[in-house]
Specification:
Order of helices and strands: HEEEHEEHEEHHHHEEEEEEEE
Mean pLDDT: 91
Number of helices: 7
Low-confidence stretches: 1-12
Keywords: Plasmid
Number of strands: 15
Strand order of the largest sheet: 5-4-6-7
Helix content: 25-40%
Number of domains: 3
InterPro entries: PASTA_dom
Shape: elongated
Strand content: 15-25%
Length: 311
């Protein structure tokens, strides 16, 4: 008599599959390993992941096969997770890029030292790590007395700027500004972002195009500055001072206005031979004085301050 054949039975060492649904894949894999099972990642699209892809804590187990509690004849458990392999790769790349940007920002924060006050000034010395820090300080409205250092080095001695810093200097150069000393040019723009000089827009330097170029670069560096409107005015407005001008040579033709509240302001439009076309003495003008001049005329003004072209 032959004895009955033995039915298939699990290995004596095989344990029931633990329930790992709802856990992170890393936790699930660890628990399966403790029960002598291996985990195989399956994306939510039903496709198995490449074996060299290692999930992180964002990858969660949503189902498993064989099921929890069973004692299968295999040591491999297919764990379906909450994302596809491609989705995980994209998310990982985004995280790496975010981390890279954060690291660069941290490096930049340590790179800048903007020191204001101290010897020769009426204010105590204080250092800032960014121009935005200056906006909430008493130095925000100071006209001068601040110096920029890059990695502890004076901008005069800095011969290599970071790419994003060089882009600012390139804006200065592209708009006719002075970028002959890149570090110095960058420091000038940084200062425009840090400090608000109330008279900046009305200042008329010997080389006005340099000022316009710096203002344009500052708008690119700090478009959210509290004084961005003044920078915009400096970059785009046409202004002249008191004195004698030839329209079309020393000033553009058009309509000009003084600041509101001008007092004791005299102006005169003259022909090429010096005859007065129109003139006025303004004792006080709450809205400012306005005049329109044409090419070929002479324009004279005194006591009027800065004229801004408005049309």
């Amino acid at each position: 008599m032959t004895s009955p054949s033995a039915s298939a039975s699990p290995s004596p060492t095989q344990q029931p599959v633990p329930d790992i649904v709802g856990k992170s894949y890393l936790e699930a894999r660890s628990e399966l390993n403790e029960h002598e099972y291996m985990a195989r990642v399956v994306g939510k699209d039903g496709k198995a992941w490449t074996e060299n892809i290692v999930p992180d804590e964002s990858v969660m187990a949503v189902s498993m096969n064989p099921a929890a509690g069973s004692t299968p004849q295999t040591d491999t458990i297919h764990v379906t997770v909450n994302m596809t392999e491609e989705g995980f790769k994209a998310a990982s790349a985004a995280k790496k890029e975010t981390a890279r940007i954060a690291a660069e920002e941290a490096k930049l924060a340590a790179r800048y030292t903007y020191t204001c006050g101290g010897p020769g000034t009426s204010e105590p010395e204080k250092s800032f790590q960014s121009f935005k820090e200056v906006w909430t300080s008493l130095y925000y409205t100071r006209r001068n007395g601040c110096s920029l250092y890059l990695d502890g080095t004076s901008v005069y001695d800095t011969d290599k700027l970071l790419p994003q810093e060089q882009k600012i200097v390139d804006i200065v150069a592209a708009n006719g500004g002075d970028a002959s000393i890149p570090g110095f040019a960058y420091a000038g723009v940084f200062s425009l972002c840090a400090n608000n000089n109330p008279d900046y827009a009305d200042e008329l330097p010997a080389k006005p195009q340099w000022k316009k170029a710096e203002a344009l670069a500052a708008l690119a560096m700090c478009p959210d500055a509290p004084h961005a409107a003044a920078l915009q005015e400096a970059a785009t407005a046409v202004k002249i001072s008191d004195g004698n001008k030839i329209v079309g040579k020393d000033m553009e033709a058009g309509t000009y206005s003084t600041k509101p509240g001008v007092k004791n302001c005299y102006w005169s439009r003259n022909t090429g031979s010096g005859s007065i076309i129109e003139n006025d003495f303004v004792g006080f003008a709450p809205d400012g004085a306005t005049v329109t001049v044409y090419a070929g005329e002479g324009f004279e003004s005194s006591g009027c301050g800065i004229w801004t072209k408005i049309g």
